[in-house]
Amino acid sequence: MLKIDIHTHIIPEHLPKWSEKFFDSRYIHLDHHCPGCARMMQGDKFFREIESNCWDADVRLKDCDDHGVNVQVLSAIPVMFHYWEKNATYALETSRFQNDFIAEVVSRNPKRFIGLGTVPLQDPQLSIQEMQRCMQELGMAGIEIGSHVNDWNLNAEELFPFFEAAEKLNAAIFVHPWDMMGKDKMNKYWLPWLVGMPAESSLAICSMIFGGIFERLPKLKVAFAHGGGSFPSTIGRIEHGFNVRPDLVAIDNKINPRQYLNKFYLDTLVHDPLMLNYLLELCGPNQLALGSDYPFPLGEHHPGKLIESMTLDNTVIERLMSGTALDWLSLEKSMFE
Q1: Residue 250 lies inside a defined structural domain of this protein
Q2: pLDDT 10s digits, 255-309
Q3: Tally of structural domains, the chain
Q4: Per-residue DSSP letters for 253-317?
Q5: I need a labelling partner for 134 at 20 to 30 A (CA). Which of 161, 214, 310, 314 fits?
Q6: The whole model's pTM is what?
Q7: CATH code, domain carrying 224
Q8: What is the bridge-based pairing of β-strands 45-51 and 37-42?
Q9: Is 40 a domain residue?
Q10: Which residues are paired to 144 by β-bridges?
Q11: What does the alpha-carbon distance between residue 78 and residue 96 come to, in Å, rounded to a whole number?
């Protein structure tokens, strides 16, 4: 059975020292302090320890073979979005560098890897240009974006031309939480990742629904990470708010948010069979695709193990493992056989 993991992250092994070039310590550089290991650093500040599976395609392929993963969808690590950069041409340069790296990895193993690009979304026009390059020149399947762009939520009118261009290009959009809300109040217990990330995904989904993005662009293909975060478990509250306070909630879109549950995709990274069963009942298997967050600790260390551990019909398992991913990416199964 074909297994496609739609949620994996990759970073170039040799990053330029953008912090020195652009005079901003927020840019990540890698400190390769020992073989096969590196510290992600923001200036002198430690961000994360990573290993060679974060940049080395051969190591990734070995892990894939060990876990029965046929195909990985590669995307940038969210801290590398650089939306905060006021000079968007700097952010464009970093995006192009990462996109060229991802495209090169895919070109060496086109049956094992699929690429998603990253763009400087603080400048929608530059982002459209880079998305066009990703799709038309680099052969990518889509673009990964963050759950918000600085002060813009995803319903911002400034971002609509980007989504409109994505629909025209048939580019799959993968929305990943980043720069978590309330992080200044969550400095212990890893709470930005445990509490903030699920809330960010719900923010992104609600913004796109209530902002009418899915209504205005019905062919736009959007997938959200981490099973949609806290959105699925709070859809009842969200719908109730829409019904009882339409003067506050339904100001841009008069359609019940529950009617959009089959208009976008979610990955299966929920770590709980009860939650995955709930998503299957809520959204259906046609909207759910295997995602692991490889190679990070909060991910599923054996991609697909949760699905495989459950009592599901083989047609449902096949849909979760690859069918939905192929639909979202607009690709054919034969490409990977």
Answers
A1: yes
A2: 999 999 999 999 999 999 999 999 999 999 999 999 999 999 999 999 999 999 9
A3: 1
A4: --S-GGGGTTSSEEE---S-HHHHHHHHHHT-GGGEE----BTSTTS-SSTTHHHHHS---HHHH
A5: 214
A6: 0.97
A7: 3.20.20.140
A8: antiparallel
A9: no
A10: 174
A11: 15
